[in-house]
Amino acid sequence: MSAGAEHALLLSREDGRIAAVLRACYRYGLSSLGPVAVSAAHFVASLIFLRMLRPEEFGRFSFLLIVVPFCLSATGALLGAPASLTRGKEESVARREIVTLQKASLIVSLVAGAVVAALMASTGSAAAAVLWFGAYGAASTLRSFARNLANVHGRIERTAGSDIFYAVLLVAGLAGLVAARDLTMPHAAVVLALAAALALVPFGRDYAAGLLRSAGTVALAGYRPMWRDVTRWSLLGVVLTELASNAHAYLVTFVAGPGAFGLLALGALFMRPASLVLSALPDIDQPVMTRRLATGDVKGAFRVVNEFRTAAGAVLAATIVLSVALVIWFPHLLLRKNYGGAEVMGVLALWIAITAVRAWRTPESVFVQATGNYPALARISGVAGIAALALTAVLLCVFGPVASLGGVLAGEIVIVAMLYPITRPWRRQIA
């Protein structure tokens, strides 16, 4: 090969690497933008509730932000996981499965709405608020699958647009209530429900038309193979992971009351940008990992794992800097409701540790999902969930609500310890 040809080849390879980096930056930048916007909107909403409503009402809103994301995770397991696996299948088969999943999404959203309403009623919320909270849960769950579907088809712009639209509507609606001096939990619940419902608009007419067609013409019998092969294991994993991650939320809320949970929610509030990115990026990256594994490109799949971990680490670092700055230099934003500075710093430190472990292990967990090994994930989540629940209950009873977060941290560490032996054989293939 001549010197000129060799030089041209090197330039071509360098251009290819730059293009790959730019594509990764675009994918992660756009996919992170929507969750960050949602996180910012929830952060603003939480600050408004913290400053203007009673501590127990702030605790109820914070509990809502635990319950609804659980419904979204369950939706990802029941619907998003089989939707991601349609990539690489014959077009007619994939289309038929997507239509079946669209009909299932209507049923799942109704069930989620009923669950959210029941749980919020158990916290003592007013009847009017309970109904609208249920509507919020149903609309959010329906939107969650719309996001899954858009990501599977590579339409990340629609996903980001929906997230940003929701965030803008929520902040504008709450700001209007504050300006009118009409902020109550029932009115805030109306704003939440309408924002989630209207945020379905960016997914377009084709999504709405497909949803309407599936509602009346498709039988759910086609879902049985998905349940047998994928979703029963992924759903079990989600339930057990929820047990490991949020046992403290349910225990503290039902044992010590929503007011006590409000203190713990402050730490979770600070970590929300990182938490939302960790929950959103799997929707983007699991289909990519699945496609690469299907073609035998194990190295490429692990490259996505590393990109995921880098992006999550960057968002977490920014979240920590922002959180510490707010606590140290702007405590008046947070400490007007009988929350002591030492308690807030203790809760924040524990939440930083919890979120850091999650940021490290989540990309590895998504890789295992991409391999289809859902039974292993369910076993891991089961062991971690039992450990977290037991330790959380002991710490809550002996040392109080703040110490109960130690159980959550222990559950996350158990997941890491059990997860890496599963991915080690895959890593050996690229060593």
* Secondary-structure-derived class: mainly alpha
DSSP strand content: under 5%
Note the total helix count: 14
Count every beta strand, where a strand is a DSSP E run of 2 or more residues: 0
- SSE string: HHHHHHHHHHHHHH
In percent, how helical is the residue content? over 70%
Quick overview:
The two termini are 31 Å apart.
List key phrases describing it.
mainly alpha, 431 residues, 86% helix, 14 helices
Could you explain the architecture of this structure?
There is one protein chain. With 431 residues, the protein is mainly α. The chain has one domain. The chain is built from 14 helices and no strands. It has helices spanning 3-52, 55-84, 91-122, 127-152, 156-179, 185-198, 204-217, 223-255, 258-270, 272-294, 298-329, 341-371, 374-399, 405-428. The two termini are 31 Å apart.
Produce the secondary structure layout.
Elements: H1 3-52, H2 55-84, H3 91-122, H4 127-152, H5 156-179, H6 185-198, H7 204-217, H8 223-255, H9 258-270, H10 272-294, H11 298-329, H12 341-371, H13 374-399, H14 405-428
Helix pairs in contact: 1-5, 1-10, 2-3, 2-4, 2-8, 2-9, 2-10, 3-4, 3-7, 4-5, 4-6, 5-6, 8-9, 8-13, 8-14, 9-12, 10-11, 10-12, 11-12, 12-14, 13-14
